[in-house]
Amino acid sequence: MASSSSSLPIFLPLTLLLLISPALSLTCTSQTFTNNKLYSKCADLPVLSSFLHWTYDPANSTLSIAFIAPPSKTEGWIAWAINPKATGMVGSQTLLAYKKSDGSMDVKTLSISSYKDIVESKLSFDVWDTAAESSGGVYRLFAKLKVEKKTVNQVWQVGPSVTDGFPAKHDFLTPNLNAKGTLSLTGGTTTTTASGGSKMKKRNIHGILNAVSWGLLFPIGIIVARYLRAFPSADPAWFYLHIFCQVSGYAIGVAGWSTGIKLGSESKGVVYTHHRNIGIALFALATLQIFALFLRPKKEHKFRFYWNIYHHSLGYTILVLGIINVFKGLDILNPAKHWKSAYIIVIIALGAIALLLEAITWIVVLKRKSSKSTKPYDGFNNGQG
What we know:
Pfam families: Cytochrom_B561 (PF03188), DUF568 (PF04526)
Strand content: 15-25%
Radius of gyration: 32 Å
Membrane topology: Multi-pass membrane protein
Binding site for heme b: 206, 242, 275, 311
Oligomer: single chain
Organism: Pyrus ussuriensis x Pyrus communis
Subcellular location: Membrane
CATH class of the largest domain: Mainly Alpha
């Protein structure tokens, strides 16, 4: 009795650990289905907390699958696809499971020729026995497919919502971009590529370069030119500092713009129209602004007034478009919240500095004008010159 009672404190924790361990280390081998369906193979997919179970019968080329994943939001969607020709989402033949407004689950078949051209249609291979279920915040997608090849390009994805049966765009974070690879139906192995991570690195470089150039250096250069020139002691230092900021910003901006063009060529079907168009406009306007330096008339030249109007108008246009496009880029990259907050703080700080300098400049200019004003009796002696 003494022996059994002394072992009880050790036995109870071990029993509890064995009971909860499946929940702590969920893998595909520990999963079961309400229909008690069994599959010969399964894989813990490397991203998006997803799992794939499958059985392949080479005799009749039938593939039975169960894809399991949590949607990115409560009423979102999950999708699993085979791409017959490529390794990405574009061109994939897709099965999409989602929850309808009445709470029931539904499965759609989608043909994705581009990220903008997603249509519900029959797939390029036969599909039957499609079904889906939801429990515990996880969706389960079931189907049978006619697949002739023993190795296929698989793609999987999760999204936030479905409106009128049409899936909303998923995130373009590293896990989403890496949700693809090859699947050996008979060997039971899956492989993924790291191209998504490499592409995300390029996207981050593109974002940093453009935030520094259009979003920081150009505004600072404009602040320098507008306010420091009012102080004679800052001449000609303000001019060289202005040129340094604008030329450096242009050089970095061209590098960022080139990176964006390269990313666009590598991401067929992924188009951010407004961000792209604003970027092209910025590059064109900034190029005109840089070349305008070589056509800058002297102060006393009769065309200097018109050149100033052109130069200032173009500069302020670049300022506004640059900041707008930085925010559009942040929305696309969707970085950690503190990065966007940090940029907002920097822009607010620059705006506050500009307002303060605006007030100081007007005070200086008005004082200067009042000290130089000419009254009717100034310079005269009782009407005599």
